[in-house]
Request: fold
Amino acid sequence: MELMADATVHRSPYRFAMSAHALGDEASAAVARLFDEDVPWARHDASFYACFLAVVTDRIDPALLASLPGKIGVLLGVPLTDRVHVTVQRMEPGDHALVHTDRPLVGYEAARVVVQFNHDWRDEDGGLLEVHTQADGGQVVASMLPRYDAAFAFAQTPSSHHAVTPAKRQRRSAVFNFWHVGNTEEVAEAVRATFDGLRFDMLPGSLDDVMLDAEATLPEDVTHRAGLIALVLTRWGYDAAAVTRAYARALDRTEDAGWPIAHDAADEADTALALASWMTELQLDHFDLDRWEVVSRRLEGVETTRWTRLSPTLALTFPPRLG
Reply:
């Protein structure tokens, strides 16, 4: 049986898919047996989520692990690495999950598949997985009873709001976690290395008056972000004139705070600004799939080896579109 062959795919309010028969008889039975084996259960009590959890990646059939990233990537339209991390989760009566997004931090997983392992589950047993439109709950646009071998796959974004209603009996599920090709642990390390030790007094003196004028008239978050972009270009070895131009463009909110509207794949300055802006966004915020796709489209056609100062970062952060 093909994995999640019966899946229905949705693009609103975010990318998710639901399947009534996700893994098939043999694979689902193998995962289900783990709940009755000696796995390292640990209680997880967060402000929004309560369950018992155990990491079981090394107990999952390698063939199943190898087949999942490609399938889930196609379903959700998300380029995934071949890395998979698996946990089993057990909710006891009263356990639940409040509305949350699982929005990914830099270097963390960016897509998940939750497979259920509960026989004879009824509406009155609770434990429904719900898709919500917003953080305060908003509208429930889809829900799924945690019946045996049913699955919910989704891309983790700022809008991927979902919840689990309180369970009335023990509820068993397995969570398969996947990494986006542009949000790997190596990307997180590159972000840390890029900003490590940077100070604003490292910026060229020719930028001082421009920065003072900007800070007197523009919001602090705009000037701070532009300053970080300029620091990234300084770290990459660009001269004072290039850094000053980039800072000025990063202040221009008609360009979406430093994101070039008309990127020229043959223009190193455009590429450097777009890439420095993206690295700054990763430093200041979480990984945003939709934002990554915008920047990826703008960088489409850039050769990763064309500019040596940018090549390592380009190859790490936007591998599918470049080459």
